[in-house]
Every structure is written in structure tokens, then in C-alpha cells.
Amino acid sequence: MSRDSSTRGEAISLWGKVALAFSTMCGIAGLFLKTETHRHDLGRLTALMLHEMRDRGPDSAGFAVYGEGRAGATKLTVLAEDTEPGWGAEAGWEAGWEARWEAVAAGLGEALGTEVSVRSIRDHAVLETMGDGDAARRWLLANQPGLDVLSHGEQLEIYKAVGDPDLVALHYDLAGRTGTHAIAHTRMATESAVTTNGSHPFATGADTCLVHNGSLSNHNQLRRLLEKQGESFQTENDTEVAAGYMSWRIREGDTLDLALKKALVELDGFYTFAIGIKDGFAILRDPIACKPAVIAETDDWVAMSSEYRALAQLPGVNDAEIWEPEPAEIYTWTLT
Amino acid sequence: MSLALPDTFDLADTTVRELNRSLHLAEGGSCTVLNPRGAHSVAAGLTSPIDVTVDGSVGYYCAGMNQQATVHVNGNASTGLAENIMSGTVRVTGNATMSAGATGHGGLVVVEGNAGARCGISMKGVDIVVGGNVGHMSAFMAQAGNLVVLGNAGDDLGDSLYEARLFVRGTVASLGADAVEKEMGPEHLGIVADLLEKADMSDAANPSEFRRYGTARQLYNFHIDDIDAELATGATP
Domain of A174? Predict the structure, then answer.
């Protein structure tokens, strides 16, 4: 950091970078429920938080929910990126989606040789199988070119779309969802186009996902490095590269904590990350910490957001411990 | 046009815009703001000697550009508390996040708890008193005024400092480029005593417990010929 800078010019260019970082936004809202108390209400509380982050990222939104899973089963959230989602479209659009998703499930079931159930939610569907989840993901990516696999795992489901964050929450029924934790994101695009698959969260492996407020400056270089390590990328987005980096490190055997420590060295740019894993939740800010973050914690929950106003309606917030996470410090919580 | 202030504004059923319009039109009096719930720009741009108490935590830029008014927040404040304050007093009973008192020209900002990163960044004459700690890069490029910290300071305190004075009672994680420790003279003890009294923290700390940090003047063009101008800004070598 600037402690090594020896000229005024360097200091001013740092100030310029700081100003630039402040000028770009995105909103993050993460809620991790430590006890049963509010798990029936996870989706509604997350939707309240997302609503407050709407003007930080009005162009698109997404959310990840860790809900009840069937032991041993894999859920895959898939998105049809080759078609409009059909919001408010003509009669019959819902049946059209259901027919398409039934066909995808049937094809996948045949390829895997096991039963695949399907839940259709507009242009998203959740496929569930007791078969090999990794094989299912590979088959979908290889044989369904119009589809994107947003998540896979026992509990994680991810939904994302272009448009008003409140409508995204409404159309994919965020408020009705139950579970242990959720991470939502509103996006103001800076590093790549406003598209559904450029929206967050990004999956980084089974039951693992990441959202990001900020911008990475070395993402092209990192993308090339990661492609050599076998990662594949579906967008030009910088956050997908961060997700790919985490995915690679965890696949290589790093713990979440160790992978984040390495990310601090390898990722150059401005970021606040919120990360979900099957039984845990993590927060990391870059060493300069331009991007805002505030954490509130009670006996029942931990919530993190870009701004306090997203936390202001959570139950018991007036008695919560509230603090700003330190730069370059990894915060993690695990279900006990 | 001047309008009398109502006793309370409830932001559960009033917009910040309506609140601020009323506060801008008032020339005196006092009022309480309820249910701020992290709203941005609460009591920003005040120009009259009015008293505003905010019950609850506020969002960005609370009391920004303040002139003459006294704004008291019973809660925490988010980014840019009292940004570019010109005069008056802004006090927060809890913590403030990033850039509290940034670019302030005058007046007093008091944070009873901790202030986050870049507290007093580019301050130009404001006095800031923080009861707890300040985060990294506080007083970055600070030009004039006093920053008094009763707790500890984070990394790179006073990086690229001009003529602001920094007083820290606890530890300093690291000094920024061109920031150095300086002797505490009698006049500096006096400055700290005065600011502790104004901040209502005289019982919390003794001026002799503070260490002073300032600029080494190696980064910017300081000439002894300009000393009169330096003194005019309240800076002492």
C-alpha cells in the first residue's frame, strides 16, 4: 500500500483509485441463521434486505438460498439463457417452460440412468437426482448449449435475472423460501455487460457460491491462468474469475479459509466478498477496503450487508452487535 | 422564508427530502428525528443554528456540509458522517464507518465509539474527536485541523499529510508516507485539553497521555517563505 510510496504522484493516483472505487456500486445482503428461530422466515427477511439494496444495483439481481436438501441427492439449478424469461408474457408461457424442463430432465435421466425430478420456475429449473451430481452437471453443460448450470449441491439453489431486484425476488419467490442461509446481490455492472449470466451469485463448486461488490483489475490474466488449470468460464465477468479461483483452490484441497488467504494475494482490485458454503458463511474485504460492509450479529443470526439500512428491519437488530469488518480479515461462521 | 420546526419528524412516515426541506427553512429551534433506519443524507446541508437529535442509526452523509447546526445521533453512522462540515457540531454516540469528517473545513465532529477507515481524510480545518479507535488510512492527505483519537489508530495514519495535527492516545499500527511523530509541546497539550472539553470527554483521558503526529514535509513543497500562510491556516510547525 501507500506506505511504500515515495512521491506525491503515487499518493494522488491512489486517491484517484479510491474515488473510482467509491463511484461504482453493487449491493450485498447475506443472512446466516445460527438457530431454528427464523429459518421458516429466511426468504422473507432476505427479500427485505434485498429491497433496501435496490438502488445500489438496479440493473440485475440474484440470490442463493441454502434450503432443505435430501441427503445424498444433488440439486442443479439451471437457467435457460437462450430465451426471454417470459415475465408477464402471453397465456401459456408457464406450460411452455414446464414442457421444456420436463424434456431436459428426461434427457438427463436417460443419460445418467437414474430418475431426475424437476421443479420449473420460469426460465429457471431445479433438477434433482440421486445419481452422480458431477456427471449430471457435465452432461448438461455438454449437451444443453442453451442452458447455464447456476449451482449444484445438496442444498444450494441460485436464481438470477436482469431487471428490478424486487421483481427478481418476486418472480422466483424469494420471500417464500426457508432454510439456513441466503446471499442476495444487486448489480450495477461495470466490468461486463448487463446480462443474466453476468449477475451474481456465482457458484464456485458444490454448495458453494460467492457474490462481489467491487471490480478486479487482473481478471483477464487470472482467467488465462485458471483456464490452464482446467476451469471453464461462461462470461467475461470479473466475479466469475474470483469464483473460479476459489473453486480451483478448494478442488486442490484448500480449506475455505486458506483459499481466501491466497485470494488476498492473487486477486488485485476492490472487493467485498460474501461467500456461502453448505454449513457456513464468510466475508472478506480487500486490504484497502473501499467497498462498504457492515455486519450485525445476535444469538440467532449473522447478517452482512453493504449498508446498515438493509439490516434495520431484522428481528432484534437493536440489540445486535454491529461492526464494520476489518480490511483483509477473513470472517467465517459455521453451523454447529 | 423561515418556518418553525415541529418537535419530531418520524421517518417511518416522512421522507428524508421532506425532513431536510423543513430543516433548511428553519432559522432556530430544535427537533428529534425518529426511525432513521439507516437512511442516507439525514440532516444534510443545514445552514442555521438549530439542534437536531436523531434517535437511531443513520446511513451515508448524515449532517454533510453542516454549517452552524448541532446534530446529535443516538446510534451509529455510516459512510461520510459530517462530510465537508463547515461549522457547528456533529456527535454520534455509537460508531461511524468510513470517511467520518472527510474534507471538513471547520466545526467539530465527535464519535463516541470507533470510526472506520479514512477518518478525517483530506480534512481542511475540522476538529475530530474519536472516543475509540480509527481505521486505516485515517487523515490521509489531511491539510489542516486536529484529529484526536482516544483509542488506537490503524495502518498508514496520516499518509501524505499536509499540516493537520494528529493526536493518538493508544497505539498506531503504522504511520503513512511522510507522517512522523512530533514532540507534544504545551500548546499541543492545550489543544487536546480544549478539544476533550468540547467533546465532553475530559474525564475520559488526560492530554499528557497523547502522542502527536504530523508531516515530515518531504512530500509536498513546503517553503519557510510560506510560513505566514501556514500560520494563517492554524498550522504550527
Answer: 24-68+161-336
